[in-house]
Design a protein that fits this description.
This protein is of the alpha/beta class and 352 residues long. The protein has helices at 26-33, 59-62, 65-68, 90-97, 100-109, 133-147, 198-206, 224-231, 243-252, 292-306; strands at 14-21, 39-46, 51-58, 74-83, 118-124, 152-153, 159-167, 170-176, 214-217, 235-240, 257-260, 273-279, 307-317, 329-339, 342-351.
Length: 352
């Protein structure tokens, strides 16, 4: 379990929350959360569709988490927790997961304490051996309507209660506090097929180190990596072989510079960049040159040339060919993720 940092004031109320992110990113999200003042990571899990990270945070910090936890897809105020081993029945679990005191506290904290509100329930389970997922959802809806007589079920709704089996036999429930725009940061001016979700772009940028100097994305596409890097203080520069991608990046990222360029031969001086972060082409939408091994060797060789000593090179791919990284790039981290439903690998190197 990820370790935590600062000591918490015994006088500050503690808020229990959890976050979802793309599969494989939970350790990176946990690390990001643990840097927040008075925050503590409790557990990591997966509900079959997303990774989950449970954490506690001081009440003063709770309202800022959505702005700062950029790797997270969604954030929730926890309203219940239950175990199958204590009662493996949908009705019993619903009662345990929809707690009146915790639901009241969550709606007040989220500013949703109005007398009449709509709600919907989302349920994800790892096993339907004992009961179908729809039974748990139906019982949870009934439990909420008993607790909140003025609420009525509707889709879409002003309140969303999510129930996830994050580990076999362990359930958590929460009130969603992020809105539909959070995952896409309000949307892009120009959309392109296969564009990265901001959460995974934020994860890549988090691996590049402190924002000091220029971060280069040599395959910038619609500019998602540039946007996430710029948001935390990097100077950003993008390249792409596709002129339409360059135009999209310029439209999507205020203040960014993007230009046409081949990732194997960039118009940059030796050691000019502090970091290199890129989602290289992979998947059925994008094709590499027929000799992909030679292409990767050339691209990583160029990264070694343009990144200064001690800088990070972060690459998201379907898996780098063996031996494609030059000796000047020393591997320091690697993690697996799923992007657009496909297995992917994030490789991190230090320029030596």
């Amino acid at each position: 379990m990820p370790a935590f940092s600062p000591a918490r004031s015994s006088e500050e109320p503690v808020v229990r929350m959890f976050a979802t992110c793309m599969p494989g990113l939970a350790p990176l999200l946990a690390k990001q959360l643990s840097t927040f003042e008075n925050a503590k990571v409790v557990w990591l899990g997966n509900d079959g569709r997303a990774d989950l990270v449970s954490f506690t945070v001081g009440s003063a910090m709770a309202g800022l988490v959505a702005q700062l936890a950029r790797i997270a897809d969604d954030l929730f105020l926890q309203i219940g927790h239950a175990r199958r081993s204590d009662g493996d029945r949908a009705g019993w679990l619903a009662q345990r997961l929809c707690r009146n005191d915790q639901l009241a506290a969550a709606t007040t904290r989220a500013g949703r304490a109005a007398t009449s509100l709509t709600f919907r329930v989302v349920v994800r389970v790892l096993s339907e051996r004992s009961f179908p997922r729809t039974d748990l959802r139906r019982h949870a809806e009934a439990a909420i309507m008993r607790l909140r007589a003025s609420w009525h079920h509707h889709d879409p709704a002003s309140n969303e209660v999510w129930i996830s089996e994050y580990w076999p036999g362990l359930f958590v429930a929460g009130l969603r506090v992020t809105d539909r725009d959070h995952r896409q940061r309000g949307g892009r001016q120009v959309e392109r097929d296969g564009a990265l979700r901001p959460g995974i772009a934020a994860a890549l940028v988090s691996l590049a180190g402190q924002p000091e100097g220029m971060l280069v994305d040599p395959c910038c596409g619609s500019g998602t990596v540039l946007a996430e890097a710029s948001a935390i203080g990097w100077q950003v520069l993008g390249f792409d072989v596709d002129p339409d991608a360059v135009a999209a990046a310029m439209a999507n990222v205020s203040g960014a510079t993007a230009t046409a360029g081949d990732a194997r031969r960039l118009d940059l001086a030796d050691g000019e960049a502090a970091a290199w972060v890129s989602n290289v082409p992979f998947g059925h939408r994008h094709r590499l040159p027929s000799d992909s091994v030679a292409w990767f060797r050339a691209v990583l060789g160029e990264a070694a040339r343009v990144v200064r000593f001690g800088g990070r090179v972060v690459v998201l791919s379907a898996g780098l060919p063996e031996g494609s990284a030059p000796a000047l790039l020393r591997p320091c981290n690697s993690c697996r993720a799923r992007v657009l439903g496909r297995a992917a690998v994030i490789d991190v190197f230090i320029r030596v």
